[in-house]
Amino acid sequence: MINLNKLTGFLCIAIPLLFFACERPLDYDFEVEEIKPVLFVSLNNNGVSYARLTYSALIKGEFKTNRAIEDADIQLHDTDGHLTSFIEEGEGNYSLEYDFEISNSYLIKVNTPYGEVESDLVYFYKAPQVNSITLSNYTKSDPPQSNDAWLLNLNLFIDEEIPYYSFRVKGIIDGEPTEELSSAWSIQSDETDGPCTLAYQFTNECYKNQSVDYPLRVAKYTSNFPIEAENIYEGYIVEMISINESGYEAGFYNFEYEFIDLVFSEPAPHYSNVNGGYGVVEAINITRNTVMVED
pLDDT grade, residue 259 (50/70/90)? Predict the structure, then answer.
């Protein structure tokens, strides 16, 4: 049986506390940050160069999916004093077609409502030398994986004048390149780890002026199921890339620019060569080869 006296006493205490809690203002200790421009640029000597311009969050953790800065004049400067402007594509994206000079340096300048930013000078290295490419079944005894992957072996000349290397692989379906393969990776980095490992990115530290094998494991088909003819790769586009120091330190060139805007955190990379704001400006040079699957 319910004790009405105890229940009445409890309600007399609880109800006033409830109203007091509802009326009391809640104090939040937000960490307010200075808003700064955020600039990511990939200068590409063998294709279109892209830039992404946004601004940082006023409050750390601010939920906002679009911080794009539009109508900005992103300028490319070379050491001879020449100036070229990027073309705006909308929503903070910009592009530029430009013939860069090897062994020359460039910087990016842009004035925004949140201040002016200027990158450090970035240096263009020559494109990597690929001696040969072979394609064979990838076999591994534990567990057996020979049916779902190819061994893509590149023989590279590691040039002492190119300190930083990376790679990119795209599959070919119906004669057209697809998105980059997330399932392509260096076999050496899967088996060993050290300064001389030819991983996803590597330096010329251990192999200057030597020809070396660079084995990659690549998927035979897309991740779509069931596995049908339209999901099987007919061949691969293999890009060996020379990158400058900023690109190597940041390791970001491979990102899609729409995913750079971080929703739940400050979009400040762990490495930045952009003065007056955040971001990375890199210079890449690509050697592009195509290898087809033989029937």
Answer: very low
Residue (of 58, 9, 63, 23) closest to 38 by Cα position:
58
DSSP 8-state symbol, 10: H
- Residue 24 pLDDT greater than 50, yes or no: no
Q: Is 225 exposed, middle or buried (0-12, 13-18, 19+ CB in 10 A)?
A: exposed
pLDDT in tens, 66-87: 789 999 999 999 998 899 999 9
Rounded distance between C-alpha atoms, residue 83 and residue 108, angstroms:
10
Beta strands in 16-72 (DSSP E): 37-44, 49-55
The pLDDT tens digits of the residues spanning 51-65 come to 999 988 776 555 556
Q: Where are the domains of the chain?
A: 37-124+245-284, 129-242
Band of the pLDDT at 224, cuts 50, 70, 90? low
Q: What is the DSSP string of 223-288?
A: S-SS--GGGB-SEEEEEEEEE-HHHHHH--TTS-GGGTS-SSS----SS--EETSEEEEEEEEEEE
Is-cis flag, bond preceding 143, omega within 30? yes
Record the tokens describing residue 70, joined without a space.
């539009």
Confidence (pLDDT) at 4: 47
**Locate tokens 């004669």: which residue?**
175
The domain made up of 37-124+245-284 is a member of CATH 2.60.40? yes
Range 129-242 has CATH code 1.10.1660: no
Same CATH topology for 37-124+245-284 and 129-242: the answer is yes
